[in-house]
Amino acid sequence: MANVAIMGYGTVGSGVYEILKTNSKNITRRARGEEINIKRILDIRDFEDHPEKELFTKDFNDILNDDSIEVIVEVMGGLHPAYEFTKSLLEAGKSVVTSNKELVATHGTELLKIAVDKNCNYLFEASVGGGIPIIRPMHQCLTANNIQRITGILNGTTNFILNEMIKNGSTFEEALADAQKRGYAERNPAADIEGHDACRKIAILASLASGVFVDYNDIKTEGITNITLDDVRYVRSIGGVVKLIGYAEFMEDGKIYSVVCPMIVNNTSPLAGVDGVFNAIMVTGDYVGDVMFYGKGAGKLPTASAVVADVIDEVNHLERSKRIQWVKADKEVMASPDDKKFCYFVRTNRGAVTVKSLFEGCRFVESIVAGEIAFVTAPLSPSERDEKFKELGSVVSSLRILQ
Amino acid sequence: MANVAIMGYGTVGSGVYEILKTNSKNITRRARGEEINIKRILDIRDFEDHPEKELFTKDFNDILNDDSIEVIVEVMGGLHPAYEFTKSLLEAGKSVVTSNKELVATHGTELLKIAVDKNCNYLFEASVGGGIPIIRPMHQCLTANNIQRITGILNGTTNFILNEMIKNGSTFEEALADAQKRGYAERNPAADIEGHDACRKIAILASLASGVFVDYNDIKTEGITNITLDDVRYVRSIGGVVKLIGYAEFMEDGKIYSVVCPMIVNNTSPLAGVDGVFNAIMVTGDYVGDVMFYGKGAGKLPTASAVVADVIDEVNHLERSKRIQWVKADKEVMASPDDKKFCYFVRTNRGAVTVKSLFEGCRFVESIVAGEIAFVTAPLSPSERDEKFKELGSVVSSLRILQ
To answer: E-assigned strands of A272-379?
Structure first.
């Protein structure tokens, strides 16, 4: 029997409890006959009506000091006290399984090192892509490859909103309200719609792929709040869709270029068909080419099922470090924004002659808004783009095109 | 240093050699500092011009009896002598990594048991989906779930052919010739176009998911040779595409329903957008819902990269059985074909009145071929379908619709 504790009995925590209870027979088989027993649940709230209310505690020490508990599920969310708790547990040689992307993205370097040093594990499959297997496939299945690029639809809320705009002609505000009504978006949706959630996830994936810590603060992040229905219609007319993309490219000089922003995805890309609250992560390796992982990127049970899979894996590997690790580089690791060029879709109120003279090699797109001209540029760096936009004087909107 | 041997220096074998040589620095890092050294290559052919010709041997005993070789890559293909060699190696406690779907589907039960008994491993990530991580994600990442369904586009050759028919209006014969010209199809393409290749792969996935041996001989298999351009056009008119689908459903009574045949995939499914030689496998779990794995399902380097990932994983787990296993059930494991109903798309030369009277609840589709009527049936079992088709007397073609 393997004893586990759950820290945080919210949406994901109660999902982990539910899965471990209802699917226990199958889980025991997967854990090589070890029954997984929930010994403690930590939460500051009262759960007097819970059928196993005796498991609940408000005292972290009941878990830390219980030598029979070997694996702890941290699904509290937020940095504090999740960080302090996780650190103490790993230092005590206990393995921790988490869905806390904020914590992994911020303190992963330190926590993973402690786990390696203490011969235990800090597992975080559920922190990116919810129920989609992505961390372990990247760490174990694509190991023969040098990863060249990661392109992800990493946030279900924004993908739902954009999809409603694309498919149903809803405005951004209508789609956001709908997402909130369905429980896909928080009452304060900033972390999603401003791109911060996707940014933490791409930072984790980029760190994992490179072995070098990528600080999410260094990733230029732009949300979807400025996308209009006219943008969406224009993009459809050129055979694409707008998606919020978390992008990381591993350059030949060893540096990492990363950005989070809405991009135009060509309809021929498998990412274009990723609808609603689904997520997808395309990983490009030098030998395997493009592989894509698709599924529900959030939600109680999908996320909890990824947590439970990590718990089972850990029970199968007790006292055996998986050595998942990334380290802080001693020199600058991020490429300059100007190291990467994109083509841009641009709408302007200026005339075709001006556009042509400024944007060499541009291609005009049939206008669908009176008084506007729309075009696609040749590849430009952000500096080149900004300079040309300044000279143009009028930019209604502009969007990067994913290549 | 970990010594490995490669058995079979064909397309995949030379790809494994190439990747281990050119990506050795990165691979050593992934193998926790263990350099992976190719000590022997077994092939019956001569490779006098090879830069490491001294590695080649025609004598299997040079590998079997070399105690320093711990991991062997079997990429010979075919059943014999691959089966005998693999069995001898596993019995000697050496781990074997393979891309040989034929061998895994036929003798996997026995070979996996030997590996477990001898505390070594028989790994076969490359046997299904080429470079796509699917075996390990199913075995390690979806463990919290009861797998309900597997729906796969498992053969790149047929997907390329169907795609050429759908996108470019090629006939089946033209598309097959094109596939052969590009090297996607063998000169004798039967294994691909008759569905046998996809059948072996779905049998492996179904065995892995259920823990029970699914014999590919028990899976009804139909290829794509009867699909015409008119079928493809009809299917487009009802918002779908024709794909060769390997299907396995794990029924509530514990039985397994499996079939390989062309099916109509609705355009809203992420499987519909899987074009060209790409493969995709959709796995449905009770908690995670649908997850899909997409990528190059064949080809020298994608497949070899999956083999090398298994080698790295094995080097990281020497003398530690992963206990991947399925067993022969002591009672019938396969569901009867009649346990599963599908809706069918049907073309006939009979009149609407006859169709209506025979197919209750059917829905007519606008005809695009003179003198024909086309319709979609309500869900039917194969017996019900066959009986009604017999009464109808004229069926130009019929296709299952994937739900």
So the answer is: 278-285, 289-296, 343-348, 363-365, 373-376
> pTM surpassing 0.90?
yes
Residue in A201, A243, A255, A322 annotated catalytic: A201
Nearest-Cα distance to chain B for A339, in Å, is 24
CB A338 within 8 A of CB A382: yes
Within 8 A by CB and 6+ apart from B136, the residues are A136, A137, A140, A141, B125, B313
* Residue range B264-291, pLDDT digits in tens: 999 999 999 999 999 999 999 999 999 9
Give the separation between CA A271 and CA A96, rounded to whole angstroms: 32
pLDDT given for residue A267 in this prediction: 93
Q: For residue B289, give the nearest of A296, A308, A313 by CB distance.
A: A296
* Contact predicate A95/A199, CB 8 Å: no
What ranges in A23-92 are assigned the alpha helix state H? 24-30, 61-64, 82-91
Q: Where are the alpha helices (DSSP H) in A34-184?
A: 61-64, 82-91, 101-117, 135-136, 156-168, 172-181
Taking the C-alpha atoms of residue B213 and residue B86, their distance in angstroms, rounded to an integer, is: 19
Q: Which amino acid is at B57?
A: T
The whole-angstrom separation of Cα A56 and Cα A47 is 8
What does pLDDT average to over chain A?
95
What lies within 8 Å, CB to CB, of B166 at 6+ separation is: B232, B236, B241, B242
pLDDT attached to residue B320: 78
The CATH T-level fold of domain B341-401 is: Alpha-Beta Plaits (3.30.70)
Picking from A31-35, A132-136, A358-362, B219-223, which range would have the lowest pLDDT averaged per residue?
Answer: A31-35
Domain locations in chain A as residue ranges: 2-130+300-316, 136-296, 341-401
Q: In the 3-class helix/strand/coil scheme, how is chain B assigned residue by residue? A: CEEEEEECCCHHHHHHHHHHHHCHHHHHHHCCCCCEEEEEEECCCCCCCCCCHHHEECCCHHHHCCCCEEEEEECCCCCCCHHHHHHHHHHCCCEEEECCHHHHHHHHHHHHHHHHHCCCCEECHHHCCCCCCCHHHHHHHCCCCCEEEEEEECCHHHHHHHHHHHHHCCCHHHHHHHHHHCCCCCCCCHHHHCCHHHHHHHHHHHHHHHCECCCHHHCEECCCCCCCHHHHHHHHHCCEEEEEEEEEEECCCCCEEEEEEEEEEECCCHHHHCCCCEEEEEEEECCCEEEEEEEECCCHHHHHHHHHHHHHHHHHCCCCCCCCCCECCCCCCECCHHHCCEEEEEEECCCHHHHHHHCCCCEEECCCCCCCEEEECCCECHHHHHHHHHHHCCCCEEEEECC
pLDDT of residue B186: 82
Residue A32 contacts B, CB cutoff 8 Å: yes
Q: Which CATH number among 3.40.50.11290, 3.30.300.230, 3.30.360.10, 3.20.20.70 corresponds to the domain A136-296?
A: 3.30.360.10
Q: What is the C-alpha separation between A314 and B42, in angstroms, rounded? A: 37
- How close does chain A come to B174, measured CA to CA in Å? 23
Give me the count of residues in chain A: 403
Residues linked to residue B327 through DSSP beta bridges, in sequence order: B212
- Domain boundaries B2-130+300-316, corresponding CATH code: 3.40.50.720
A344 secondary structure, DSSP code:
E
User: Chain A within 8 Å of B116 (Cβ-Cβ)?
Assistant: no
Residue A201 annotated to the active site: yes
B258 phi-psi bin (left φ>0, alpha ψ -120 to 50, beta other): beta
Query: At what angle are helices B156-168 and B172-181 packed, to 10 degrees?
Result: 130
Two tokens, residue B10: 């064909």
What is the mean predicted confidence (pLDDT) over A277-297? 96
Q: Looking at CA atoms only, how far is residue A356 from chain B in angstroms?
A: 34
Of the candidates B26, B142, B268, which has its C-beta nearest A146's C-beta? B26
